[in-house]
Amino acid sequence: MLDTEQPQGTLSLQTIAMPADTNWSGDVFGGWLVSQMDLAGAIHSERISNGRCATISIHEMTFLVPVKVGDVISCYTDTLRIGNTSMQVHIEVWSTTPHREVSTKVTEGTFTFVALDKDGRKRPIPDEIKKVYADKGKA
Ligand SMILES: CC(C)(COP(=O)(O)OP(=O)(O)OC[C@H]1O[C@@H](n2cnc3c(N)ncnc32)[C@H](O)[C@@H]1OP(=O)(O)O)[C@@H](O)C(=O)NCCC(=O)NCCS
Questions:
Q1: Which domains does the chain possess?
Q2: What is the overall mean pLDDT for the chain?
Q3: 122 CB within 6 A, ligand 1
Q4: What tens digit of pLDDT does each residue of 24-76 get?
Q5: Is residue 44 classed exposed, middle or buried when 0-12, 13-18 and 19+ CB atoms within 10 A define those classes?
Q6: What are the counts of helices (DSSP H) followed by strands (DSSP E) for the chain?
Q7: 35 lines ligand 1 (CB under 6 A)
Q8: Is the pLDDT reported for residue 2 higher than 70?
Q9: Which atom of ligand 1 is nearest to the CA of 114?
Q10: Whose CA is nearest to atom 2 of ligand 1?
C-alpha cells in the first residue's frame, strides 16, 4: 500500500475500539469490525434508498493490520452498483489514534443491501434514484 493512499468514499461511521471489543489476547475482534462496516453500509444504503434495508451478502474481506483499544475507526462507503432492489456498497475501514494525523487502511469489503418495505419484503429502489446512478454508469 502506498503512503499516499487515501480513503475512498463518504465517511459514514466513526467510533473508538473499546476494551469490550477485544478477545482474551487484548486484540480487537474481526467480527466487531465487520459489524461496524455493516452499520456503515446500512446507513449508506438507507440514505440512498430512502428507507429500511437489510444486508443480503458480504463478499470476501482481508484484514491488513490489527486494531488496538483506543484506535479511532472510520468507515468510508461508496456505491458500486444499484439494482432493482439491491445496492452494492464498497466499504473501507481506516484506523488512527486520536492525536495522530496519519491513518492506515485496516480492511475493505463489498456488502450488498436490499431495500425493504415496512413488512420486511423487498421493495424497488425509486426510479429517480436509479436514474442518478445509471447516469454515472452504476446501474
Ligand atoms: C432481503 C430479502 C427480503 C430478499 O428477498 P429475496 O426474495 O430473497 O430476494 P431476491 O432473491 O429476489 O434478491 C433481491 C436482490 O438481492 C440480490 N441478491 C440476492 N442474493 C444475493 C447475493 N448472494 N449477493 C448479492 N446480491 C444478492 C438479487 O440479485 C436482487 O437484486 P436486484 O433486485 O437489485 O436485482 C430476504 O432474502 C431476507 O429477508 N434475507 C434476510 C436479510 C437479513 O435479515 N439480513 C441480516 C442478517 S441478520
A1: 10-135 (3.10.129.10)
A2: 93
A3: yes
A4: 888 899 999 999 999 999 999 999 999 999 999 999 888 999 999 999 999 99
A5: buried
A6: 2, 6
A7: no
A8: no
A9: 1
A10: 122
